[in-house]
Amino acid sequence: MYKLFALIFFGIFTCLVLQNSLAEVSDSGTIVTPHPGKAIYDTYCLTCHQADGKGVPGMNPPIVKTDWVLGDKTKLINVLLKGIKTPLVINGETYHNPMPSHAFLTDAEIANVLTYIRSNFGNKATAVTADEVKTVRALK
């Protein structure tokens, strides 16, 4: 009986540890799941735009409080769908590294990562929806 209890306890404990390792804890101590766009950002964006969203000077632009991120959603969606090959000037600094297309991501994934970017790193902008991405993707 003791072995069964220990096995059940260990299983529950393991599940809770794994669940909490994927979650974040708020200032009030409440467990919150990360935004679905965070995993996409961490996989496809973090290397160039960095964990703090400040980019790499002269190479990869910041995503912190820029018109590109906070402005026109269609323009921002197109950045992910088509990439950018020409140098950009953002906040008076030129960035030369091209950004590849991420059109392989689903409409929902693009919406999630753009919403994450638009609501983190000090940004406060409205969400991007999968329907908005679908509409822009259809325009080609």
Note the beta-strand portion.
5-15%
What is the number of strand segments?
4
CATH superfamily of the largest domain: Cytochrome c-like domain
Helix/strand structural class: mainly alpha
Mean pLDDT across all amino acids: 85
Under CATH at level 1, the class of the largest domain stands as Mainly Alpha
The number of helices is 7
**Widest sheet, order of strands:** 1-2
Structural domain tally = 2
The rounded Rg comes to 19 Å
**What is the fold-level CATH name, i.e. the topology of the largest domain?**
Cytochrome Bc1 Complex, Chain D, domain 2
Instruction: Give the second-level CATH assignment, the architecture of the largest domain.
Output: Orthogonal Bundle
Brief write-up:
With 140 residues, this protein is mainly alpha-helical. It has 2 domains: 1-33, no CATH class; 35-139, Cytochrome c-like domain (Cytochrome Bc1 Complex, Chain D, domain 2, Orthogonal Bundle), CATH 1.10.760.10.
